[in-house]
Specification:
Blueprint: E1 10-14, H1 17-26, H2 31-39, E2 44-47, E3 57-60, E4 65-70, H3 72-91, E5 100-108, E6 114-120, E7 131-135, H4 169-188, E8 196-200, H5 217-220
Antiparallel strand pairs: 1-5, 2-3, 3-4, 4-6, 5-6, 7-8
């Protein structure tokens, strides 16, 4: 996208615009607000890349949307998955799958084409998240320690999770059912590389920047 203050000319393309318009309506996103969040001056700030895909990530200024650059292969996969995804969202409005709001391409006349996916921010909260986890249900190479504990942007992994979360039985059952439904959709689409994102806010620590050291986590839980 053009940098702030850049008035260069570029071409814009929407992929499956009617489908995504219907998805935004179903997910409660106003089209005018959506466009304003993405296109107003200074609307986007770049995020550290959380994975090995080489994708570039941005966050909208209002914190509602995450923008991810995608390659042709990812674009084709998303287009193939879209009909089943729309049906899934309509049937299970409380799905834990990412909310997809738009798939676009921008092509500056003097630059290369960039394809990008607009998703809902998984952590749209004013509370500070003291810990963030990317959980895959695997132990192979699944740790960010020790550097992760001193980095407020770090995305921790399965082997870094040393706390237990207690849920009411009905909430546990509802969560397990929805996870099973969501995973079934991904399995049917032959998607293998996915994970559960989990954010943790310690009430005692409020919105202070640093969470307690690892050995103090048990005392910090409330």
């Amino acid at each position: 996208m053009p940098a702030s203050g850049d008035t260069g000319t570029f071409e814009w393309k929407d992929y499956s615009p009617r489908v995504f318009c219907a998805l935004r309506a179903a997910l409660g996103v106003d089209n005018a607000e959506y466009l304003l969040s993405l296109t107003k001056e200074g609307a986007l700030r770049r995020l550290p890349s959380p994975g090995k895909s080489g994708s570039v990530f941005f966050l909208s200024d209002d914190g509602r949307f995450v923008i991810k650059s995608v390659r042709k292969g990812e674009l084709r996969l998303l287009q193939r998955l879209l009909p089943a995804y729309c049906e899934h969202v309509a049937k299970f409005p409380r799905t834990l799958l990412n909310h997809f709001y738009g798939l676009h391409r921008v092509a500056p006349l003097a630059g290369r084409r960039v394809r990008f996916l607009v998703m809902g921010n998984v952590f749209p909260t004013d509370l500070r998240l003291h810990r963030k986890y990317d959980l895959k249900g695997s132990a192979l190479g699944r740790t960010s320690l020790p550097a992760g504990l001193s980095d407020p942007w770090a995305m921790l992994k399965d082997l870094d999770l040393d706390v237990t979360f207690l849920l009411a039985p009905e909430h546990h059952a509802a969560l397990a059912r929805q996870l099973a439904r969501d995973c079934a959709l991904l399995e049917a689409a032959h998607v293998m590389d996915y994970s559960l994102l989990l954010g943790v806010h310690y009430v005692r620590w409020g919105n202070r920047a640093w969470a307690p050291p690892r050995g103090d986590w048990a005392r910090a839980r409330e």
